[in-house]
Amino acid sequence: MSALRDAAMKSKAWPFEEARRILARYDGKMPEKGYVLFETGYGPSGLPHIGTFGEVARTTMIRRAFEAISDIPTRLIVFSDDVDGMRKVPDNVPNPEMLREHLQRPLTVVPDPFGEYESYGHHNNAMLRRFLDTFGFEYEFISATEFYKSGQFDATLRLCCERYDAVMKIMLASLREERQQTYSCFLPISPISGRVMYVPMKEVNAAEGTITFEGEDGVDCTLPVTGGRVKLQWKPDFGARWAALDVDFEMYGKDHSTNTPIYDGICEVLGGRAPEHMTYELFLDEGGQKISKSKGNGLTIDEWLTYASAESLSYFMYLKPKTAKRMHFDVIPKAVDEYHQQLRAFAAQDIDAQVNNPVWHIHRGAPPASNMVVPFAMLLNLASVAGAKDKSGLWGFIQRYAPDASPATHPDLDAAAGFALRYFDDFVAPTRVFRLPSDKERTAMVDLRGRLAVWEDGLDGEALQTMVFAVGTEHGFAPLRDWFTALYEVLLGASQGPRFGGFIGLYGVDETIALIDRALGGELAA
Q1: CA–CA separation, 379 vs 520, rounded Å?
Q2: Which residues face 77 on adjacent strands?
Q3: N-terminal to C-terminal alpha carbon distance within the chain
Q4: Residue 374 · residue 507 · CB < 8 Å
Q5: Residue 114's pLDDT is what?
């Protein structure tokens, strides 16, 4: 066994733990179909959001972890349930009125309100694929519309007719009595209006593979379950899809977790073997509410990429998938800086530590070197005081701090400088609140200014940090955190900030003296 495989088999990183479960599913042997199949599902009722990306990113991390411990080939399918009827008009699309008359029609026959694709479903599928392609995911896309209409699902749908009572037994046990009276696992698509119909079945003919129900005109209608004329309700569809495709692994959000026995049971009734699952916690918006595609709350993928790199988003997705996460703009700076901390640590780690490092999973075991010699949080604070309008304004400070750095040699730092300016303008500047110092704080800041005025040890951030630390200690700040909070609030207009010595090294000693003078003179608070 190679050193990598040996380390991976012992790793406590969650992608390897999941990968080992999948390997055990086949006792390490080749599946009959010749590969292990990973699947992620997507409901294209709205524009893709970060939760959608996270599901594919995390599944890909498990897939790569599996490939590190096994020679069995793998496939990843991204499945779009675009036959689903449009239940409501999304809040975040143009021309909402044009969509109202198409409620309950399959998403791939609803007109595209953006006017770019043949349907709203096609538009949202294209957005999903564009987003996934941006991150370089390797996947195969399946549209439920094509899956149903092409006949790929026909055998499973006929089997659903034959085993209708067993499928219904599983479903009815999960429903309230009132709902039981009208429920059917089959949803016919009306030949009259094209709408997805939620109606009880009058007959399910296993021999013919047909269903009979009361049509929209009050007359009984009989349809074959094949050929895209009928779809399955979403819970049966989940399990039936697993059986039809022989899926080995699928993860989903905590809101699906109570349905796991239903999905598994239907898969097994239809002759399949339930896949391995992983349940992740939900993504929340700023107010703690679940992110919704139709509401458009929380961050979108494009919004994250406006302010930070794709890799920082992947890093955020790696962290504690079974813990709920707020997906708001304020998580971005921390994610960027922690990602680069892990990159810097990777090169010096042994193989056992590397496979537990998030960047191994983000970069398939071969992460690049980090050249972020200035943390993102520091760039934000530099943007706060430098008055720079573009990256070149920040580079004047960066190159004094790191003379060997340039946009050509440090492209990720150059990109981060642009991101920092954009982020500062949109989120930091509007929320800054400067205050005047207390008498105690003023005395300490005057002392700090005096020491900087005679400082002769260059721009060494650590030496400057030691000096700032000493000022706070000598002036009786306990805990010392109160001293740094005062510096941030008085000089930067925020309650948190960078290591202040490093900030002085980047911004400059003379510039920091001038900043203190402006603050003590009341200019910043004014």
Answers
A1: 24
A2: 39, 140
A3: 67
A4: no
A5: 93
